[in-house]
Amino acid sequence: MKRLATIFLTIAAVFSLLVGCSKSGGKEQDNTLVIGIDDKFAPMGFRDENNEIVGFDIDYARAAVEKMGYTPKFQPIDWKTKESELSSGRIDLIWNGYTITDERKEKVLFTKPYLKNAQVVATLAKSDITKLDDLSGKVVGLQSLSSAADALNSNPVISKIKTVTEFADNVLALTDLKTGRMDAVVIDEVVIDYYMSKEKDTFKLLDESLAPEEYGVGVKKGNEKLLQKLQKALDEMNEDGTAAEISQKWFGENKVLK
């Protein structure tokens, strides 16, 4: 009888442990934070010539997560499913030029904004397109389910555009622009600035931008504890100069918001 009772107690203890683990969610339990990224989003997060994931957000995230006492794991994801990846627990954070919008606030928790950005229109340097109205009858590309789509859809010029083509990432959109399959691309200013610095005299920007915006880090709804830990680390990085140092490395100046 005693032996039978011991067996039942052991089973109960194991069951309790399994339930506890399943309820904890995320990867915090093994001291790892999985960070969902778009690995074709230079200079925020992308692969270098050695296929290593690098970028401003990669350095910024690594420094913050390590300051929190965790180990970062960068997980490339399909950017169209980023919120689903977060809500399902497959990733713990969305961190790669993730624009704060009212619609996204309904799905995720956000840190305070850490970087300013804008949605701009890029064309080839030789193009005769100089202003938004010149997009009338043109073919325009953008990254699927990005804030570029929101910015374009909210501008009156959308009714004049011939076709809006969506791409899995900005690299593909810019490639089609260079080959002439697109007339223009709506894109994050920080991204196109990077490519313009690498491919001089290839692109130009219209003077009119579509929408100013700010980047933040996305945390799963209900995980306020993780959000508070992360925000504390980001604030400390602003105070101790870590954020400024990382920004200087990637942008040549301190662009991080306080």
From TrEMBL:
The keyword Signal applies. GO terms for molecular function: ligand-gated monoatomic ion channel activity. SMART domains: PBPb, PBPe. Residues 32-253 form the Ionotropic glutamate receptor C-terminal domain. InterPro entries: Iontro_rcpt_C (IPR001320), Solute-binding_3/MltF_N (IPR001638). Keywords: Coiled coil, Lipoprotein, Palmitate, Signal. Gene3D superfamilies: Periplasmic binding protein-like II (3.40.190.10). GO terms for cellular component: membrane. The keyword Lipoprotein applies. Residues 32-254 form the Solute-binding protein family 3/N-terminal domain. Residues 220-247 form a coiled coil. This is Amino acid ABC transporter substrate-binding protein.
